[in-house]
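Lab manual, section 2.4: Encoding a predicted structure.

Procedure: take the sequence of the chain (704 residues), apply the prediction step described in section 2.3, and record the output as structure tokens. A sample record is shown.
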Amino acid sequence: MESELKINRLNQNDKLIALAGNPNVGKSTIFNSLTGMNQHTGNWPGKTVTHAQGRYQHKGRSFILVDLPGTYSLAANSAEEEVARDFICFGNPDATVIVADATCLERNLFLVLHTLEITNHVVLCVNLLDEAARKKIHVDLNALENQLGIPVIGTSARSGKGLDRLMDAVYQISNGESSRSPYAIRYGDAVEQAIDIVSPYVRELLKDRLNSRWVSLKLLDGDEILLKALQEYLDSDLMADPPLVQKLEEAKTLLDLEGIDRERFRDIIASQVVSCSETICEKAVTKENDKYHDLDRKIDRVITSKTWGIPIMIALLGVVFWLTITGANYPSQMLASFLFGIEDHLTDFFLQSGAPPWVHGVLILGVYRTLAWVVSVMLPPMAIFFPLFTLLEDLGYLPRVAFNLDNFFKKSCAHGKQALSMCMGFGCNAAGVIGCRIINSPRERLIAMITNNFVPCNGRFPTLIAIITMFFAGVFTGPARSVLATLLLTGVIVLGVVMTLIISRLLSKTVLKGLPSSFALELPPYRKPQIGKVIVRSIFDRTLFVLGRAVMVAAPAGLIIWVLANVSVGDTSLLTQCASFLDPFARLIGLDGYILMAFILGFPANEIVVPIIIMSYMASGSMLELDSLAQLRELLVSHGWTWLTAICVMLFSLMHWPCGTTCLTIRKESQSWKWTFAAFLIPTVTGITICFLVANTVRLMGLV
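Recorded output:
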């Protein structure tokens, strides 16, 4: 635990500040504004599952700000809450800033009151005051501060209002300049007597390292997760102390006599916190209009309805793909021309320098050409798709997607939040796997990681789009072609979602048995996206980050591909020999040896599958690009491609092993090579099986 909570302080004078709050209250926006970092912000719950840290200077003092996962309480019922609670309790922050939503303050105070039981060094930041004013909600900050006994600062983080006052309050609290007594919850005579019995012994054992009253409450509650965390933090077991165990039994006997068992004890604690929150808000919050949520609810009645929810979701997905397909064509061509133009200059340089041909082949025709392909094919679609995806996220639509799909995932014995990680997989499956951290259940998290590859990432889109355009949408011209291509691509995506649900159910009924866990998904209010910030941050935080990882994996792949294509045994290259060996099996599943070999060599990056196929068919020693899809179609047809081959290639592209980057990410997230192998094998076996059934059914029917 100490390694997880360790923060790098440049000197002992640095002040450590914890930034906590419910999901979707603008916490990461405040963090970004204060530290200048590009921590990604999103309008859906459970996005941040680890803590980010940044620095800022105020009044000559250096502060380290730690952005904790969004959480509704410190009860540690999920991975996010556990991270937040452990840092606040055991990370020794000099101050804790709780960010609350001014439009629903009562619910947010639950976390504030929980935190005050752990530490007195708390600042309440009431954010989104601009939204509250628009909804005619007035928050009396002075009344709130007087009741809670802690600094209360109002902010509108998106416009930067109030952040200077917030930093002033943090400065004062972290330097011990506040002398007020924070609000303390009283739980009734019986519970308070039980606490008084245990607390003195806990205080003696803790030696002021933690709040003894709060620890006593958790000991009486029997919170096993906290007891384990305490044992790791203290490096000793409190329950191994006989006097403390005796006092705990005495306190529990007292509670039993009052008819308070464990469940009743928890109910008393929770209901009292809720009651206190209501009392505080009654004195500090006034609402001129109780119908401020009506517009959101009217919209939700349509886009989350059983009738229209799924069609609208599919339509929006189609629009995003159409914009991505249409918008990426010309930038991709321009980028390819630029990068391959640089290749010509590099070739001239190698010729003039007298370098051996094999050096030019390995570095330029192998490594550089592969990188040029990956960058020119990946960058334009990602630069369009990620901002569009992020705009939907910032608008607040993605939680509605999870809501619409929750029932389907529940029937598949999987977690509803898997819909969110699945959506992230459209941009990059590795990012989707990382997004699975928002799922609390380890079993359901594994299911989500294993099945994330069934939705095609942006690296597989070029292959799917090219095949759809050449073999199915090519009969049309102009806008009709792109519209039909989008419809067919959307159909392929829907098939991927259906396969995700089917395989999730099979896993939950076999190797990962269990019942789906329930979860509360907050539907945040719709908000106007910050288009400028969304575009900049999605490009830098997502697009370039994913592209950088793909480039790192693709570079060595280019070297291997060049060696296989140029090193011969006898009169045949290694690539041709491998393809000939695979050909009989590949034919069974509707492919050929070269196609299957291209998928294998495309393991580091899916973007290079089509270039490898072109290179193999043209018997070239390096990857090539044809001037048009018509030329590419002519090349493929001359090597035996039919509409059945096209369908099987699309199916296998949709369902085969994850790329190298995704496999490494699964290994890191699952901490298991076994589950990484399972994530590799399951989609591969599924794709082979479906391609075999489709290919041989069509052949038996005599349709090809």
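Check your result against the sample. Residues 38-49 have pLDDT under 50 and may be disordered.
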